[in-house]
Design brief:
By secondary structure, the chain is mainly α. The protein contains 3 helices and no strands. The longest helix is centred in the middle third of the chain and has 28 residues. It is flat, with a radius of gyration of 18 Å. The model has no long low-confidence stretch (mean pLDDT about 90).
Length: about 100
């Protein structure tokens, strides 16, 4: 298993993590939540069983809540996180605006 996938190789570190290290671990946890959402939604979309699809989508939605918790934690741990995320959001809005103008 790659180190990125398992940062502690099954062991608790011998010291407490600083905020920067913890932020990296939280990003890993966030990635795992997003991967789980992808898996559960793909399974929900791939079945004709209404109960299974409903359960899988419900679990996917719970993972999205977890992702939101991790994102908020990152904003707390890293003072520049919100600013950088906002820059990215602004870039997308700008491109969308340009695309809309191009179509008009």
């Amino acid at each position: 298993m790659a180190e990125f996938i398992n940062p502690f190789s099954g062991m608790v570190p011998n010291r407490k993590l600083n905020d920067r290290e913890l932020a990296r671990a939280v990003r890993l946890a966030l990635a795992a939540e997003e991967e789980a959402v992808h898996l559960y939604e793909a399974l929900a979309d791939a079945t004709d069983n209404p109960l299974a699809a409903k359960v899988l989508q419900d679990v996917a939605d719970e993972e999205r809540v977890h992702a939101g918790e991790f994102q908020e934690l990152l904003r707390t741990l890293l003072p520049d996180e919100q600013r950088l995320l906002q820059e990215g959001a602004d870039e997308v809005r700008e491109l969308a605006s340009e695309e809309k103008e191009r179509k008009e």
